[in-house]
Amino acid sequence: MAIVHELSWSASRASTFATCRRRYFWDYYGSWRGWERTADAERRKAYVLKKMTRMPMWAGDCLHVAIAEWFERRRTGEAPGLEPTLDRALARFRNGYRESRDGTWKQRPARMTHLAEHHFAEPDAAWIYDRKPGKPRDEDAFQLLLYAIYAEHRWGITPTAVTCVDACSR
User: Taking a C-beta distance cutoff of 8 angstroms, is the pair 90, 60 a contact?
Assistant: First the structure.
């Protein structure tokens, strides 16, 4: 069965078209069939870039999947707890992080995680995510600053090149 590229339209496509016609072309036409082994380099690159995500988006996706699994388990009569649900989200996040960092995403770009932070790696920069239960507190900012100082001592990265994220779970 041949794959057919049919014209379709949606609110998100219309928004992309209105915002940037060049992006619209590359997202919907220039990257089409970039997954094929015979794809030319430009088409393949467009496809790979289209499949890339950023860490905050990946973290949100992992949490959304864990929440959907929680509701599904609850529907079938299980009583899933908060900690196991968060642990599943964190395990998914870490697995995707490794796929991206180690380059295994190249085997299946549409099905594996490819993070922009790894693709466009800045050798002297770092991201630190501090996962905590509850709401963000003013005291958390001080702890994040300490993490930035730790990054300087541990990895030789200046504190101003460290991005710290207060990832509260409630």
Answer: no
CA 38 to chain centre: 27
Domain definitions of the chain by residue range: 12-50, 51-168
Can you say whether the dihedral through the CA atoms of 95, 109, 13, 56 is positive or negative?
positive
The 8-class DSSP code of residue 157 comes to -
Residue listed under structure tokens 């990946």? 58
What is the amino acid identity at position 70?
W
User: What φ, ψ does residue 39 adopt, rounded to 5°?
Assistant: -65, 140
Q: What is the mean pLDDT of each run of 10 residues along the chain (170 residues)?
A: 82 92 90 90 91 92 95 92 93 96 91 90 76 78 89 86 75
